[in-house]
Amino acid sequence: MLYGFGAYGLWGMLPIYFIWLMPANSLEIVANRVVWSVIFCALVITVTRGWGKIGAAVRNPRIFVPLAIAGFLIVINWLTYVFAVTNGNAIEASLGYFINPLVSVLLGVVVLKEKLRPLQWIAVGVGFAAVAVLTVSYGKLPWIALVLAFSFGVYGFVKNRVGGRVDALTSLSVETAVLAPFAVVTMAVLAGAGQATLTGLGAGHFWLMASTGVVTAVPLLFFGASARRLPMTTIGLLQYVAPLLQFVVAIIFLGEHMGLDRWIGFGIVWLALVILTADSLGHYRHTSRLRKAATA
Questions:
Q1: Which has fewest Cβ within 10 Å: 43, 101, 134, 175?
Q2: 201 three-class SS
Q3: Pure H helices in 228-259
């Protein structure tokens, strides 16, 4: 539980960290995040003597290809999230991660042809209603929230194709290594255009930027440690900690405004999540009873 709260708690506080990195723009922040993540992962892999796992993952197309695809999906997610936070849209960013569980259910229907239980259908329907209300509230489709929800949802789906064949550190290492050449070129282009801030704002800013590797890897490692020890129902409940913290940070610390119409839209989203969570808990208890009866 401590690992789980540590992971989601750190993810929930990310808006404050990205604000500290300004005036760096979202492109520079994400490029640095990729490069420093690769460096940090390489150090940890060296200490833990995990290069054999990296080699095995790279040589196996069934592992490497999904991880490469996952890398490009997660960089879309990172770019959108950092752009949202640094442009005064952290509340909408939190909405994306509230919607994400509903997107995961929807992907199960569309891609895997799964059959939904009645409460799951109700939750998805309520979720669509919430998006409609928020579209009216924002005066446009909440594209930041939808891009975040779908990019992370598809990212999770792709990672599930790999299953338990790679650990969290190996997965992050391969994903970011695939992106590293693009990130290095981006950093060089920004430096050449005089738009890079990495070395121009003092040692404090430099080390904050360099720490993006640690900030990226540590919560993921905490999550991996938590996921191996906790039931999936508990992990499913813990996932709401991050967007809830992001939501609170956006209002209290970043001073973003929530009008009545947006409160209504968010309230409908939270209703959908309550329905979805109740269904998940009920289904888990039912299947647990069946297993116990079968082994009695």
A1: 43
A2: coil
A3: 232-238, 241-252
Ranges of H-type helices in the chain: 2-12, 14-20, 26-48, 51-59, 61-86, 90-110, 118-138, 143-162, 168-192, 202-210, 212-227, 232-238, 241-252, 260-295
Q: Specify the pLDDT at position 204.
A: 94
pLDDT digits (tens, 9 = 90+) for 153-166: 888 888 877 767 88
For residue 236, what are its two tokens?
């499913």
- The domain total for the chain is 1
Q: Which one has a higher pLDDT value, 290 or 34?
A: 34
- CA torsion through residues 31, 211, 228, 120, sign: negative
Closest CA to 75 of 21, 7, 151, 173: 151
**Which pLDDT tens digit goes with each residue over 77-108?**
999 999 999 999 999 999 999 998 888 888 88
Nearest in space to 191 (alpha carbons), one of 32, 19, 21, 20 = 32
Are 187 and 12 in contact, with CB atoms under 8 Å apart? no
Range of the domain at 6: 2-295
Within 10 A of 160 (CB to CB), how many other CB atoms are there?
A: 12
DSSP 101: H
- d(Cα 290, Cα 234) in Å, to the nearest integer? 20
Can you tell me whether residue 139 is helix, strand or coil? coil
As a whole-number percent, the residues of the chain with pLDDT over 90 amount to 54
Q: How far is CA 78 from CA 15, 30, 105, 152, in A?
A: 12, 7, 22, 10
